[in-house]
Amino acid sequence: RPGVLFPCQSRPLAAMKLLRFTVSTLFCVSQLTDNVIATGGHRRIRANVLAIAKDAAFVRTDGIKPFAGSPPSPDALKESWPKEWIESHGEQALLQSQNEATVWANEVREAMRHTWKGYKERAWGYDSVSPVSGSPSNWCQMAVTMIDGMSTLYLMGLKDEFNGAVSFLQQANLPGSTPHGKDKFFEINIRALGGLLSSYSLSKNPVLLETAQRLGDKLYMAFKNGPHQLPDSMVDLGDGSSQGGSSNIAELGTFQLEFRALSQMTGDQKYATAADNAEQVLLNNGPGLIPNDISSLGKPLGSHLSFGGAGDSYYEYLLKTYIQRGQKDKDHALKEHWKHCMLQMQNELVVTTKGGTTFLADKEGGRLNNQMGHLACFVPGMLMLGSRSLPKEDVDAKWEPLAEKLTQTCNKMYTKTASGLSPDVYYFDVDDKGDGMTPGNDVNLLRPEAAEALYYRWYYTGDHKYRKMAHSMFQAFEKHAKTKYGYSETEDLDSTHPLIRNSQESFWLAETLKYLYLIQAPRNTLDLDKWVLNTEAQPLPIVDK
To answer: Helix (H, G, I), strand (E, B), or coil: what is residue 390?
Structure first.
């Protein structure tokens, strides 16, 4: 109860340690006294303590209702629907939508269980598993596939799998202290730190926060001169050594959510201070789009503008950091900068072919490059989030129509191929009166961004067509990418028998399967008024407005 832990209110980690100690003590006392006092009352106390210990990883969390596959009652479903949904579709159609979607959600849930089973059998504790051969491999030695997938397990109600991961982390004491080479600060932050903070936020298990703080301290060492500059882009989690050099705005502008959350949860403000100061270095380049490449001092290099790789999540985090911190007046600059970026994007990078296909081009040296990567498919979801989260006076009426057009293009990236799987890049012929789309490569990397776009469009509109699109997308993965130990990247996509590449990134668990599940689960499985998803789809709590 709040009164019991009041002295620790400003130190959440200390409070959780006290709670864990209390549960452990009660459990020990229960065992001792049970040998001499055989009262029914005492046995009930012991049973309650055992239940607490067993299900400590699955607590009641505001804005979260893990969906384990059994549909809620019609009355409970109706309570979760926005008025807009009911007015647009009617209650009967929405009930039918959920009945069909529940079947599809369970298919995705089984895909997650299959993926987790392969990882646990062949690569438990390693960063990655090869989905065909089952070979384990490491890069940062943080059990990345495990940590990255835990929040998805939680939302799917897969308790045993989630608790097994917590037990491993309790014993592993990650990160280790032996140097093992430098890896991307960006990837470690969004996957490992983001995964730990999210799983802690969902479960309140202190093991996860303790591990997150140890990892955060190693990443903090990439700020060589303290929290007054951008971090080095490469870090060794063993000894904390790091290496800088030029990088890009996505890598250097995508740790604010995680570092601020770490400060919020531990009470140590050094992480948030580092994030704020680094963000200001990038914001000093002025409002609007920033070239992708950036020097170690935060100055633009070149003129390449893109919402694909190297640019994407910088823009995403401008909006989401503002939302995460409760849309406070002191963060006004973040909102205004994001709005400037969206306006410039609409004016300079949005292109529509003669056949009516809308896409996001790259721009370099003042000239458009008419291509769009799968990574840029995060933009429709970002536009929907901005439109429905910001105050009405800040919302551009063009955002949602653009989000719909781009979502249709991202879905078409899948439906155009014989396999139903999207290449990683498409080229566009603006003079073509058809869709004008030509694959730019022939590889599918199990990426999540198209599913992400479908999820946000469904979450805010309730339109069943997005669930159908997502299910078709999932069926293509299930048919062509499933392997003995997981799901694999594929190539030769315009074939009915794509080739398997024996590679599976952790974002398959953290993002792709999560979005494909959430769109089929009841809307209140994850409340986007209370949670914001990092760029790895890790839910982090929003500070009260």
So the answer is: coil
Burial class (CB in 10 A: 0-12, 13-18, 19+), 25: exposed
d(CA 154, CA 208): 13
d(CA 200, CA 207): 8
| 8 Å CB contact between 93 and 87 | no
SS (H, E, C) 424-487: CEEEECCCCCCCCEEECCCEECCCCHHHHHHHHHHHHHCCHHHHHHHHHHHHHHHHHCEECCEE
Provide the pLDDT for residue 40: 45
HSE of 522, CA atoms in CB hemisphere, 13 A = 22
* Tens-digit pLDDT profile for residues 467-524: 999 999 999 999 999 999 999 999 999 999 999 999 999 999 999 999 999 999 999 9
Parts of the chain with a pLDDT under 70 = 1-59, 225-228, 545
Rounded distance, CA 188 to CA 240, Å? 13
User: pTM (2 decimals)?
Assistant: 0.91
Terminal Cα-to-Cα distance of the chain (whole angstroms): 23
Total residue length of the chain: 545
Is the four-CA dihedral 138, 143, 146, 149 of positive or negative sign?
negative
Strand partners, 532: 540
Q: Return d(Cα 263, Cα 527) in angstroms, integer.
A: 23
Residues belonging to the active site: 187, 191, 312, 449
Reported as half-sphere exposure (CB side, CA atoms, 13 A), residue 446 has a value of 27
Cα–Cα distance, 86 to 307 (Å, whole number): 34
pLDDT in tens, 40-78: 444 444 444 444 444 445 667 899 999 999 989 999 999
